[in-house]
Each structure stands twice: as structure tokens, then as C-alpha cells.
Amino acid sequence: MWSIGRTVLVAVLLAVGVSGQGRTPGAARSVGTAGTAGSCEALSSLSMPNVRVTSATLVAAGTFAPPGEAGRGGRGNAFGTLRSFCRVAATLTPSSDSDIKVEVWLPESGWNGKLQSVGNGGWGGVISYPALATAVGAGFAAASTDTGHATPGGSFALGHPEKLVDYAYRAVHEMTVVAKAALGQYYGRNAQFSYWNGCSMGGRQALKEAQQYPADYDGIIAGAPAINWTGRAAQSMRIAHALHTNDSSYIPPSKYPAIHAAALQACDANDGVKDGVIEDPIRCKFDPKVLECKGADGATCLTAPQVEAAKKIYSAATDSNGREIFPGLEPGSELGWATWGGAQPFATGIDHFRYVVFKDPSWDFRNLKPETDLARAQDMDKGLINALDPNLKAFLARGGKIIQYHGWIDPQISPRSSVRYYEDVLKTMGQSARVQESYRLFMVPGMAHCRGGDGPNSFNMVSAIQEWVENKKAPQQIIASRLANGAVTRTRPLCPFPQVAKYKGTGSTDEAANFACATP
Question: Same domain for 172 and 237?
Fold first, then answer.
């Protein structure tokens, strides 16, 4: 396993004006002796160990189009109105089997003096072009990596342990080093602040950075983080095994609405507002047995085997000693159950078992031995992909800030996994009030995986983290909106966990001003 030697790296960074790792956020940095901006084309000669710049070109405003299908997973066309920028592409080879592609986008004008690196989803394999465009559109210099491979799914890991290391964490860190060097040379000064913004696997990357490379970023946004990667894979295989080993247990998607309606009936009004959203699933008591068919099977009831399958979806995966491996899904998530409980097993989970755990592309999830295989996946990782280290002392000590968020009806990454990690950090570091000065978790009622769902799910975490890092204003609440046909139909405050939004008793329940954050 290779990383850039500290002595060589410091010399390189000093040469291009990127000194100051480990600084206090906002502190001034030396920009080297030149102190003037360079041309975009000059970045082609950027010299760093095991870094080869493959192109450095100025892209005219509104002309960028992502290559091939690499823009998949975007949130719309963010390219048509994009300002002109210097596009730097490089290949990094920190090991003999590494082939990490990175891109750094540098606004030609209007740079806000900051870096925003953006995360990936799933198994990575592509540059996150839409997220790059969003960041540059807001004035940031931006960076993204394909995580070291260009193949869909997890097959790249088979027989390539160094590529798995690149995917797990190394590609992101090495990309960060290159991005800071490139912008330092281009602008003749360094980023005043550096931020990470990612959801799902990008959320896992976020917390891995804070844990292993605390000097890389000043502010981190970790959305729906897949920090217990192996636990999520194990849980998804457990659910697939339970629903498909015996066909009588399978719950067809046509029954999801009935289960969802029953969950809402049980818990929607617990917060004093009946609005189609369960505000606090932790305090929801719902037993799917209330839907058990009284006679023949029907569209709005569950057979006895289906009731047991539903209970498994809500329950945690455990090892042979009863210790939790990964929590179940929450009441309210039912409309998304096809993610784990559909006709095919969850692709990311089965790839992990095939290519990482068993190293057998033909492995069949029906052969899963839950009593041993779930724990086997956990034990094999040894902290490689998982980002569960609760010791954030180094990151927080240098003034770093973390906003973590997670939708309560996420059907892909159990939201309580975020709660578990947050509580582990508090337990490990103690003095919870002090930890909350730098790290806050926001659970989002009614939001699915990173976006979507029945609740307010549009919010500006980038502004919140900047206010916290740059102006020392910790987010007491973050306003979330629900949009329909481009118009805001509802707003609600998102509250720092464990607080929840409580209705004040008067005024519209669709207006955030009529709610206050309070401990349940």
C-alpha cells in the first residue's frame, strides 16, 4: 500500500503553493514565491509523484458535455448554464495496480476562494460530473474521482486488493492532494476553506476522510453515509434470503401501499400532526401482524409468512451472539422496500459478497448461511471500507465541522445506522455538548435515500456548513422544503438529533415557523 511520502509531498505542495495542512480553518497560508495565477494549459506540466496530468483545457461557458454515460446519476442538466472553467484531468498511480482518474474544475472567473470536493455513489467507477457542475456553478473550485476503476459494480475488486484500497479511501485522499496543488498553481493562492460534500457512498467517503485524513477538509457534509458498508450488504442479503428462499415469504410491491398506510395509521399522529409523515420513527410502535389475512390472501393483507418477512425487514441483523450487525428499516419506508426486497437482491450487497467476501462471481444469495456469513463479512473488512471509527478527535481538534444527515424512510441504508454512529462518537469522545459544537446529525422525516419521499427533502447543507466553519454559527435548525411542480408546498425545520420538530399548536402545519426543535 503506497501513499505519497511526507517529505516529497510537502516539497511539492510548497512549490505550487499548497502548504498549510493541519491549519486552523480560515488561517492564512503561504502561496509560494510566485503569488500569481498561471494559465490553464500550464497545469499540464504539474509535477507530482505518481501523478500524470492527461489534459488541462479551458472549457467555454455552456459548452461542457459529460463523456459517454459518465454523467449518469445526475439531478438534471447543470451544464448548459455553467461558467467557463479550467478542466484538469489526471491519472494517479499510488500503487502498481492503481489507475485512479480525477478531475479538478477551476472557475476561470468568480472563484469564491474555496474548494468543494464531491462524492460518489454505489461502487463508484465514474466522475461525478453533475455534482462538479453544481459546485462550480456556486463559485467553488471542485474535484471528483472515479475511485480507481471504470467498471460498473464491484467486479473490479476481484483479484485486485490495491484497487479495493483505492476505492475504500485512497483515491479520495490522493485526489484532494492533487486538487489543492492544481488550484494553488492556477490561482496563485490557496483555498481559504476546503469542503467535502457527498451522500450515500459519498457520505461514507466523507466520514472516512474525517477519520483518516483530518487535515484534508475544514467542513464535511455526510449524507445517508454507507459507513457500515459490510453491515448494509449483510442485511440486504439477509432480507433477500428471507424473502426468496421460500416463495411464500415474498411480499409483492402491490402490497407495499397497504403496509405503508398501516404504519402511518399507527404512528403518523404521534407528533400531534397528521401529515403523512412519521416525524420520529424511533418512538413508533408498529406490528405488521395487524395486516395478517383473516381468510384468503388478498391485495391489502399479508399472509403469515409475509408478516414474518415484514418483521425481518424492520428488524436488525444480528450475529450468533445476538449482537447487532445492522439495523432494520423504519416504519414509513415501505414504499421503497423493493430496494432490498424486490424480485432481485440488492445489487451493491450481492456484489460485495461475490467479489469481496467469497471471491466467487457465481455465489448465489440463496446459499447464504446467516448464522455465519453475516459476521464473516464484518470480520473481513477490518476497517478497510467501513468508516465506523468513532474517534474524531484529530478532525475536531483542528476546528473541523461535520453535518451528517439521513432520511428516516431511507430504504437502502438503514437510517438508524447514522444514529448508532453518532451515539458511538458521543460515547467515545465524551462531553456531548462539546462534540455538538463541531458535529451534528440531522434526521430528515419522510425523506428516502439522499432525496425523495413524502416529507420536506430539499435543503441547503452547503450554506449551513459554510456558516459554521467560516462564521462559527452552528446550525440550530435547517429549513427543509417540499416542492411540487417547482413550487414550495411545505417547510419544516430539521433539528439536531435527538431533537425533533414540535408543532407549536397554532398556525399552518405546512410552515416551518410554526414548529420548534425540542427534545422528545
Answer: no
